[in-house]
Fold this sequence. Notes:
Blueprint: H1 7-14, H2 22-28, E1 40-43, H3 53-68, E2 72-75, H4 87-99, H5 119-132, E3 135-138, H6 142-155, H7 173-181, E4 187-190, E5 199-204, E6 208-213, E7 220-222, H8 231-241, E8 246-250, H9 257-267, E9 273-277, E10 280-283, E11 290-292, H10 303-308, H11 313-324, H12 328-333, E12 355-356, H13 359-371, H14 375-389, H15 392-397, H16 401-408, H17 425-431, H18 450-459, H19 466-480, H20 484-496, H21 504-523
Parallel strand pairs: 1-2, 8-9, 10-12
Antiparallel strand pairs: 3-4, 4-7, 5-6, 10-11
Helix pairs in contact: 1-5, 8-9, 11-13, 14-16, 14-17, 18-19, 18-21, 19-20, 20-21
Amino acid sequence: MRNGLSKDLIARVLGGAPKYTLDELEAKFPARNLPDGAFVTRFAPSPTGLMHLGGLYGALIDCKLASQSGGVFMLRIEDTDTKREVKEAVDIIIDSLNKFGLKYNDIPEYGPYYQSQRKDIYHSVAAYLLEKGLAYPCFLKPEEMDEIRKKQTSAGFATGIYGEWARDRDLTEEEIITHLDNGEKPSIRLYSTGDPNKRIFCKDAVRGSISFPENNEDLVLIKSNDGLPTYHFAHLVDDHFMRTTHVIRGEEWLSSLPLHYQLFRMMEWLPPLYIHTSTIDKIDAETGKQRKLSKRKDPEANVAFFMADGWPTDAVLEYLGNIAASGYEEAKMKGVVKSFWDYEMKPKKIPMSGALFDMKKLEWWAKEYIGAMTVSDLVANVIAWANEYGDDVNKKQIADVDYLTRILSIERDNPKRVRKDFITWKQTLSEIGYFWNELFVANTEYEFNSDLLRDFLATFNEGDDKDTWWNKIVAIATARGVKNGDVAMNLRVALTGRTNTPDLYSIMQVMGKQMVSERVEKVIK
Ligand code: GLU
């Protein structure tokens, strides 16, 4: 510990007197009034302009653990890197959370939720540390730090500002004043008393107790250029005063855990319980090896991809939920629970590494999900997608809602035998494309038997019920000495261009007399 600074000097160092004392902050953000065991979690993205699938995975875990325990899930925007464009990037995050139905609670009492608006709070805590001699103003310039780094590297020392390298650690008040009078702006650094030869024990809810060498670096808490906090300091202050109980964050932060424990201990605050989540991986198509999803290489790394391509957001969530809580799929298949929100997730079972996200597996979740939907929900989702993301042809497909509904109703009346060929809203519209002349692709490879089709047209009556219709097909087959299936296949391909479709009778009913006759006539030679 060094000598603390006087109140006047603290005000000069921070560019203004602190607004609050620690006691005032404690009173302003009191302990939350929640049931025992309630989780208070937060999703704390830095607005970079893209929402990563790993971010959505973390936010889902945050939201789920809070909601199943009667707690609170917050969205906190970590916008302390002022060089980045924020507004649009925040919109992307909020829009993604809304579309995926992850509801956060932004009651004003514990806000503001943008770090850039919390400067008063950070400065108040920094003032406390300066007063206690737990932090100090550092006037090292970038060139000087470069110089230090070079010396450290050539001498084989660890780089960073620590111990004897921390030039300004023990400046006197007079020396500080001289720097300030020179117009220099300091950063505020931690006065670290950690000893790397000793170990600090930290807790991760999944990994258990982990020990690390103590931190001896005088890390920057408040940056000199804009007076905003670093991640480490903002995390300490925000998660304490927002009364976060569980910090769920990416495993890249695991190595910062000893520093964070050090900061919480220094403040005599109880640290939250940490859960460091695995990266989201895929199997690389070229190498066959598992690797982290890459923003550059993998479209699915970006959450916007799932919306633009019309994946049912709930199916994506179900799959991510199953990655986080591996027993979920089994419970759902057994019918024990209906959705991930009904399944009790165990924080201890969140995977520590290698969480694999496989698009083929997602297809399965999506098929199951759409298969279980009601027609009206399916129609509503397809329409909503087409309105926002669809092209002109898609818009045409949704123009006649009644027609669309009749098409999507095919093979949905028997809950035991629901068709499972729809994967995304976009693919659903393309799958049923043959119901529109603009999208119908005639099959030029199939060898039609014109005699069968002529016979069909001769007896075709749109009003026939299914049995009558089928009996006519059987009659044609018998008369021509072919199989019943041959007649049906000729019809199927003539009408849809495909050899594999849902129930043919239903398709014809929806298409109507004119479309059926025209398509059959077209292939007759
Ligand atoms: N802004 C940090 C990130 O995006 C937040 C980490 C955390 O959740 O504490 O990685």
